[in-house]
Amino acid sequence: MDRLLVLVRHGQSEWNLKNLFTGWKDPGLTEKGIEEARLAGRRLKEHGLGFDMAYTSVLVRAQHTLDLMLEEMGISDLPITRDQALNERDYGDLSGLNKDDARAEWGEEQVHIWRRSYDVPPPGGESLKDTLARTLPYYVTDILPQVMRGKRVLVAAHGNSLRSIVKVLENLSDEEIVGREIPTGIPIVYRLAADTTVAEKTDYAD
């Protein structure tokens, strides 16, 4: 039984490029982001990986990334589930602001706390802890059971929603997950043991 789970953060978005807080806003991919997504698909194909189903968020940048990966793999009929449980962390009042402008308004230290603490949300938004409280139940009830049945599952989502899943998969502490970065367009490949723990992990970076 394969028990394959592959996580991919979407390619670079237009707002990543502009250094803006994005959250639940819905910008598209840049040309670089499109190529990152295509490269992710090519890497998966080169390693001989196929999939039975895919999950993504309701945001365009993640859905487009998934579509491009599947195109590169030559897959056209995969069942895809889209759910806002996999959306990026909601940055609330920071959404759409340039990160340097936010530092100028609220101060370097406060913005750093909002961005890098585990449980302090920005005004009107979510902390990483809040994001995990939204994403993790969906992973446990919807995604993980499919993997444990031997389905090969591909998830295209966002830095913070994927960090929520990685925290559980790799049994990371609150402090450890805050420091974990999920790079854009790099497939993280997990094979799970019968007890749902990670038996093997690889990533397909250059």
Automatic annotation (TrEMBL):
Its EC number is 5.4.2.11. Pathway: Carbohydrate degradation; glycolysis; pyruvate from D-glyceraldehyde 3-phosphate: step 3/5. Pfam families: His_Phos_1. The active site is at H10, E88. PANTHER family: PHOSPHOGLYCERATE MUTASE (PTHR11931). Homodimer. This is 2,3-bisphosphoglycerate-dependent phosphoglycerate mutase. It comes from Lutibaculum baratangense AMV1. The lineage of its organism: Bacteria, Pseudomonadati, Pseudomonadota, Alphaproteobacteria, Hyphomicrobiales.
